[in-house]
Amino acid sequence: MSPTPSPAPLRVLVVVGSTRPGRLAPAVAAWFVRATVPVATAAGLTIDVADLADVGLPLLDEPEHPASGGYVHEHTRAWSRRVAAADAFVVVTPEYNFGMPAVLKNAFDFLYHEWAWKPVGFVSYGNTSAGTRSAQMAKQVVTTLRMLPIGAAVALRIPDSIPEGQVVRSAKLDEGAQGLLRELTRVAEATRSLRADAGPDDTSVPGPVDGLTLAPVRPDDLAELLVLQRCCWVQEALANDTLDLPPLRETLDDLRASTSTWQTWRVRRHGRLVAAVRARADGPTWTIGRLMVAPDQAGQGIGGWLLAYAEAQAPEGTTRCELFTGHRSERNIRLYERAGYALAPAAGVPDGSVRLTRKRQPSA
Question: Could you give all domains of the chain from N- to C-terminal order, each with its CATH number?
Answer without folding.
Answer: 11-196 (3.40.50.360), 212-359 (3.40.630.30)
